[in-house]
Each structure stands twice: as structure tokens, then as C-alpha cells.
Amino acid sequence: MSARPDRASAMERTDPRTRFVVGLSVAVGVALPLAPALCLLCGIAVLVVLSGSVDYALRQLKRLWVPVLIVFAVNWVVAGPYLATLVSVRVLLLSQALVVFSATIRINELYHTLRWMRLPPRIAFGTTVALHSVELMRIEWRRVRDAQRARGIDVPSGKKAIGLLSAPCRAIPLVVPAVSLAVHRAWHVTEAAVLRGFGAPQATGPAMLGFSWRDALLVLVWFGFIGATLRYAA
Amino acid sequence: MTRERGYSLFQIMVLASVAVLIVVLKVALKVPLKMPGHSGVFWVALLYLGRSLVPRRGAGALAGLMSGMVAAFMVPGGRGPLGTLLQYFAAGCGVEAAFLVLGDCRSWWRALLAGLAGNWTKLLVKSALDLAMGMPVAAALAIIAYPLLTHTVFGLVAGAVGLSVRRALERAGLFAFIGERV
Questions:
Q1: What is the pLDDT of residues B41-70, one digit of tens each?
Q2: Do residues B133 and A94 lie in contact, with contact meaning Cβ atoms separated by under 8 Å?
Q3: Nearest Cα to B56, choosing from A181, A122, A131?
Q4: Hey, are the CB atoms on B17 and A183 less than 8 Å from each other?
Q5: CA-to-CA distance for A131 and A218, rounded, in angstroms?
Q6: Residue A165: predicted pLDDT
Q7: SS3 track for chain A
């Protein structure tokens, strides 16, 4: 999720709906043969650079290299090197689907994008609030953990929590107050939202989304590229 | 709050809070076990809990969808944001299916089955994605064999954790608190 309102990349200046469609279209790569799939991977690399989310994509790839290695080795043994390479490239492609969207979307854009996807307003609002409150919940979690530790409860952390069954058992005294706090906070947010007119019959939100020439250009170039790749595959 | 046919805003906010907790606890309670499916112990347990806190048809799937969206943005797994979204949603659907078939999963064996259903559907989606990418069935089976075992164990543990937390919250009066406000 983007946290750089002052340094918007070329992709961040486009409409989030365009980024969503472009990001999702990467998933067609799972049905392509090797050469077009590699072309698509190169295209995604360009999109990632344009969106300024190289670090994000690299973190993704770093997390993925062990599973890809396993997939590659097993497929090599079962079906040979061509299929092993093909499946590995497709796994990489799938891992990059929606990366451009999730790395560049801002929380205030998300509500409108989710509404555009025909999600009910309450669910779109709930999801947006959830994304807003992740950091708050992390702070609350740390408070709960510290409080329980002060009461002498053994908190599972790091290498100490190596036991298969002991870790979940020791986590229960932490999870219970965390859930209780979360539910009470949910009630406060509900009250605040209703008092501010959420759900009122004629409530309107700011019209933030707008399709500009940048979006038209991106859609034309990207889907032209995908079309050429599919034609090459055929 | 007025009673309405769909989910009330408070119910949605409870599910959203559960979704955030899933993402926060996935990172905070990272158990250093290099075994597939171990993280499901906490987040499938929380999906079970979300479905218990909001006893409405579809609440489990909705909790899965919302946690999938939050996770896709905050902590996308190895399969990327799309794969993460699908996996969480599938786990939510698994828990939901268990509640629909078994009723309110308050007994131990039902809770264990709900946890198992959640963790298995997550694995099922992973395998379905592998097959969709052209992986031969033999390779997919070879890759799934060990995770199937670990997902089974951790799914059962997730059900047990979920029920333990649920009983503690019932004793603490949280269910009554929600019931008064829906």
C-alpha cells in the first residue's frame, strides 16, 4: 500500500480501477506457453518500475524463491526441464498479479474502487477501516502482550515458541483480550460512523475516481501488449 | 442501531476487526516452525471465531474475504496478492461450510472439523492454482503429500484454539455485548 502522497509515481497518477484491471490481467499469464509468458514477465517488470514498487516486488520474489525451487525440482523429476521452467515462470507471473495495484493503491482510493467493484458500501467501508487500523491493532497487541507479560504470563516470541502445541496454548491468554478489545473498538467505530451519517439515505462520498488520458494510454499499451503476446502464443 | 435484513454495520465492523487481527497475529505470533500450514493455527482459529461472533450465514466467507483483502495489501504471501486473497477467502468458505453443515460448532469435535475444513480448503486452493499453472498431477500430488499431513494437524489445533478462545470470550460476556448491539 502506498504511503508516499508527495512522490507519486507514473502509475500512482492513474485511476486505481485501471491499475486493478491491469494488475489482474497479469493472471492470464498462467495459461501462456513459455516464450509469451517470459515476454509478459518482462512487461510486468516495466510496470513495476513505472509504479515505483521495485522493493515491494523484490520482497515478493525473495519470499518466493524456495517454493519456486521446490516446484522446479519436482516438475523436473516428473516431467522434464521444459515443463519445470514453464510452471516456475507461471508461478512467478501469478505472484506478480495485482502487485502493481496493491503496491500503489492509497486507502482513500480503495473505498471507491471497492464500490466500483459493486461491493456493498458497508463491506467496502469495513475493509477500508480495517486497512486503516492495522497499525492501531499492532499497538494494541503490543500493549496486551506487555500487560500479560507483567502478570507473569509466558508470551510466545522468537525461538522460545518452538513447541508445536505449547505455542498455541500459551497464545490463548493473549488472543482473548486482543479479540475483546477489537470488538469494543468495532463498536466505537460503528457509533462514530453512524453519527457522521454513514448509511444515511442521501449520503454521498467525494467523487475521487476519474478516467484520464494516462489511463487510456496505459490500457491501450498494456492490452495491446497482451494481445500481441496472445497472438504470438497462438 | 436498527435491525435490518442484511449484516448490520456493527457486524461488518466486528468481521473487519477479526480480519485485522488475523493479519496482525499472523506476523506477531510467528512460530519458527518450517512446516507448511502452521500459520493457519491462529488465523483459521480467528476465522472460526469471526463466524461465531457473527452468527449469520456467510459471515465466515465474508471474514475470509475481508482478511484476504487486508492480507493481500499488508502481508502478501508467496503466491502474491491474488493468491493470498484466494487462499484466505477459501479458508473462510471452508469454515463457513463447516458451520452450515455441522450447525453452531460449539462442541470440540465440530470445532476441530471447522478448523480442519478451513486449513484444508486453503491447501486445496494452493493445489488448484498449481494445477491451473500446468503442473502435472503426479507433481502436484508429490508436492501436496507432506503439506496435507501438516495442514491436517494444524487445522485440528486451529479448531481447538478457536473453541478455547470462544469459550473464554463467552465467559467474559463478549457474546452478550455483541448480542445487545446487533
A1: 888 999 999 999 999 999 999 999 999 999
A2: yes
A3: A122
A4: yes
A5: 27
A6: 66
A7: CCCCCCCCCCCCCCCHHHHHHHHHHHHHHHHCCHHHHHHHHHHHHHHHHHCCCHHHHHHHHHHHHHHHHHHHHHHHHHHCHHHHHHHHHHHHHHHHCCHHHHHHCCHHHHHHHHHHCCCCHHHHHHHHHHHHCHHHHHHHHHHHHHHHHHCCCCCCCHHHHHCCCHHHHHHHHHHHHHHHHHHHHHHHHHHHHHHCCCCCCCCCCCCCCCCCHHHHHHHHHHHHHHHHHHHHHC
The sign one gets for the Cα dihedral B176, B177, B180, B182 is negative
Nearest residue, CB atoms, B16 vs list A129, A161, A184: A129
pLDDT at A114 over 70: yes
pLDDT score of B42: 87
Helix, strand, coil abundance in chain B, percent, nearest 5 = 75, 0, 25
Residues A78 and B139: beta-carbon distance below 8 Å: yes
The rounded mean pLDDT for chain A is 83
SS3 at position B172: coil
Q: Choose among B162, B16, B77: nearest CA to A119.
A: B16
What's the whole-model pTM score? 0.87
pLDDT tens digits, residue range B145-171?
Answer: 888 999 999 999 999 999 999 999 999
Selected residue of A1, A110, A127, A149 to mutate for chain B interface (largest B Cβ count, 10 A): A127
Report CB contact under 8 Å: A172, B33: no
